[in-house]
Design brief:
The structure holds two protein chains of two kinds.
Chain A lengths: L8 E12 L9 E13 L4 E5 L6 H8 L7 E6 L2 E2 L5 H7 L3 E4 L3 H4 L6 H10 L6 H14 L16 H13 L5 E5 L7 H18 L2 E5 L3 H7 L2 E6 L2 E7 H7 L3 H8 L37 H5 L4 E5 L2 E4 L3 H15 L1
Parallel strand pairs in A: 3-8, 3-9, 6-7, 7-8
Antiparallel strand pairs in A: 1-2, 1-4, 4-5, 9-10, 10-12, 11-12
Helix pairs in contact in A: 6-7
Chain B lengths: L1 E12 L2 E13 L4 E5 L6 H9 L6 E10 L2 E2 L5 H4 L7 E4 L3 H4 L6 H12 L5 H14 L5 H5 L8 H13 L5 E5 L7 H18 L2 E6 L2 H7 L2 E6 L2 E7 H6 L4 H8 L49 E2 L5 E2 L11
Parallel strand pairs in B: 3-8, 3-9, 6-7, 7-8
Antiparallel strand pairs in B: 1-2, 1-4, 4-5, 9-10, 10-12, 11-12
Helix pairs in contact in B: 7-8
The chains are: A alpha/beta, B alpha/beta.
């Protein structure tokens, strides 16, 4: 990993607001904030894991980066250019650089095309029209995925779930991307196939030096693939840091709650003391997690915490961060 | 209490009968929780539907017995089954949205089960019962929840309602088919804890079905690992998951991404699960993908009981069995 270079992708103050259609006549128009003021960087060759419960905005973030969605405000700077401000035409020139792998391979592949047809279609869209030239790109990749040439003539329904997901990954890799957004790529797969796909992604990433955003709700998988992890809650980034920092030294109460739900084969887990997901209070002066937080105090209900840097690169959005550190220091002093 | 003996189930496709389950045997007693785990299409849900007597017309039990409290309930007709459903065996399904009727309020759906199972209860008694059972599964404001429709509840809440309905007639055996698959991790934990608590209180046995081996390891006292219609390994969960014997169980556990094996490639099981039509007719079903296969695998594969009490269906252990 190149440490001193500029990040490949910088996300700055990204916000996405959906309009919710009114359910009653004369009702005031409602909005839903899917993503609120999210900022993070992705460096060259790095995998950043996005984790959170459903509805926390992880997929929205991924989709904005590949420009399937338009952000309401904020910047997505890819190699110095703001994707969010580009017109579709301008973006098309960069389209090959940023690719997405989707969750459900069954719906991501057009059932009317053969696998070969799908791949040629992707190449045609960027102007590679010569069949021999197309083959030059397709054939080595197919072999790479452990599939044979005869699969090119098959239709998507003739493949198993794992094979379909491999084809989806190949489609994303076909145009030599530098950046990949992988949205829940293994959630729909069985354990044995999941291992095959995860291995394949890791191998390809190393060989092609890809940068990646990996979105998943599975704590084990995120830990396995990511260099850095971003924890999201209700559209806000509550904590980000390296794998080690989040899993061993996580500071935000939500991170604790999430990790207490982590089930492993060999350890007994302890149940987190969080309240049920209640009403979401979105206000500039209330902490987003306060309604569910076991530690919430008056301060949390009257002042929104800022993202604080605890260690270089380890950011936490919580009022208690400082006091927690002090508590740890006090505990150490007591032990001595 | 539940004793499944040599259960064989076949499905008819294009006028040919294909075996779906082959010689599946297990027992559940007292406050035990048995977890059935396996990949999609391995027959775990089929086992549950067979026990509930909910098999489609093109699927039938070919051989074997399902002994429930001493009665053989395999192949009973719908009417006879009614004696056992609800009070004897109840089921929680995976998708709570499609299992609750969207047109009826939560209260009405719970009321229905009470009306069927407790014929002489008065309206007030039923109402009290419903409030009690909803409070029991963790609803703070039960009266308000009763008036809501399924779509007004979150996924976790709906799953709680499903559990309340299943537990309403105090069944001896609760079958939970992927009860937490559609839920978030934090909610999943709550539902699993709730099921554990209810089990302790009502002394229910649970048959839990999941594709997630970590969930099974967390909640179950016994584990059965299924592959292609075979129960390949079955025993105490501590033994099976910590020290797997069957090559499939070994490979399955090695392919879980954990914090320890980060940065190392995961163990892969080569190939794919054979489809129903492609399953080998003789010999071991795992033969094609097995790393420890030998010539003996093509013959009959007996299920042997190892000295520690677990059952393994693999020729590698054929000579280690005890009776």
């Amino acid at each position: 990993m190149a440490e001193n270079r500029e990040p490949i992708l910088q996300v700055k103050n990204l916000t996405k607001i959906y309009r919710v259609p009114a359910t009653k006549i004369f009702e005031k128009k409602k909005t839903f904030i899917a993503l609120n003021d999210a900022s993070f960087d992705v460096h060259y060759g790095e995998t950043v894991g996005l984790i959170g419960e459903s509805g926390c905005g992880k997929s929205t973030t991924g989709r904005i980066i590949v420009k399937l969605l338009q952000a309401s405000s904020g910047e997505v700077i890819y190699e110095g250019k703001d994707i969010n401000k580009m017109s579709r035409k301008e973006f098309k020139e960069n389209r090959t650089d940023i690719q997405m792998i989707f969750q459900d391979p069954a719906t991501a592949l057009n059932p009317q095309f053969t696998i070969g047809g799908l791949m040629r279609e992707a190449l045609r869209s960027v102007g590679i029209k010569d069949k021999a030239e197309q083959d030059k790109k397709i054939l080595p990749l197919i072999a790479h995925a452990g599939l044979t040439e005869e699969y090119l003539a098959r239709a998507p329904h003739e493949l198993s779930g794992g094979q379909k997901q491999r084809i989806c990954i190949l489609l994303a890799l076909l145009l030599d991307p530098k950046f990949i957004v992988a949205d829940e790529v293994v959630s729909a797969l069985d354990l044995s196939v999941q291992a095959q796909i995860l291995n394949m992604i890791r191998r390809i990433q190393k060989e092609m030096n890809l940068s990646m955003i990996f979105i998943s709700h599975d704590l084990n998988i995120i830990h396995y693939v990511s260099d850095r992890i971003i924890v999201m809650y209700m559209g806000e980034i509550v904590e980000q840091g390296t794998c080690e920092e989040i899993y061993r030294k996580g500071l935000h109460p939500y991170t604790h709650l999430l990790l207490s739900s982590l089930i492993t084969l060999n350890a007994d887990n302890t149940q987190g003391e969080a309240k049920d997901m209640g009403e979401i209070i979105r206000s500039e002066s209330v902490c987003i997690f306060a309604p569910r937080c076991p530690k919430a105090t008056d301060q949390c209900w009257h002042e929104k915490p800022a993202l604080k840097e605890v260690e270089p690169g380890h950011l936490v959005k919580c009022h208690f961060v400082q006091t927690m550190e002090e508590a740890a220091a006090a505990a150490r002093a007591q032990a001595n | 209490m539940l004793d499944v003996q040599n259960l064989c189930v076949s499905i008819r496709m294009d006028e040919i009968w294909y075996p779906v389950l082959q010689n599946v045997s297990f027992k559940i007693d007292g406050e035990e929780t048995l977890g059935l785990v396996g990949e999609s299409g391995c027959g775990k849900s089929m086992t549950a539907t067979a026990i509930m007597g909910l098999l489609d017309r093109n699927i039938k039990i070919v051989d074997g017995h399902i002994m429930f409290d001493g009665d053989d309930i395999a192949g009973l007709d719908l009417k006879a089954y009614q004696k056992y459903r609800g009070t004897g065996i109840a089921m929680v399904f995976q998708d709570s949205m499609s299992c609750l009727n969207p047109l009826h309020r939560i209260g009405a759906q719970l009321e229905e089960t009470y009306k069927i199972h407790f014929k002489n209860m008065t309206k007030e008694e039923i109402h009290d019962k419903i409030v009690y059972s909803l409070t029991h599964v963790g609803f703070v404001n039960a009266e308000e929840t009763m008036r809501k429709y399924p779509h007004q509840l979150s996924g976790g809440q709906r799953q709680r309602v499903m559990i309340a309905i299943a537990m309403s007639a105090n069944p001896k055996l609760l079958i939970a088919d992927e009860p937490t698959t559609a839920l978030d991790v934090t909610t999943q934990n709550k539902i699993l804890t709730l099921m554990k608590n209810l089990q302790k209180e009502h002394h229910t046995s649970i048959l839990m079905i999941s594709h997630d081996i970590t969930v099974i390891g967390q909640t179950c006292s016994h584990v059965g690992v299924m592959y292609s219609g075979w129960l390949v390994e079955y025993g105490l969960s501590g033994q099976v998951l910590k020290d797997p014997k069957h090559p499939y169980t070994k490979a399955l556990i090695a392919s879980i991404p954990t914090q320890e094996n980060k940065n190392k490639p995961l163990h892969e099981i080569g190939g794919v699960v054979p489809s129903l039509r492609m399953r080998p007719k003789t010999g071991c079903v795992f033969y094609e993908r097995c790393e420890e296969r030998c010539d003996k695998c093509k013959g009959d594969i007996p299920t042997v009981t190892l000295p520690d009490g677990r059952n393994v269906r693999c020729v590698l252990f054929a000579d280690q069995g005890v009776e």
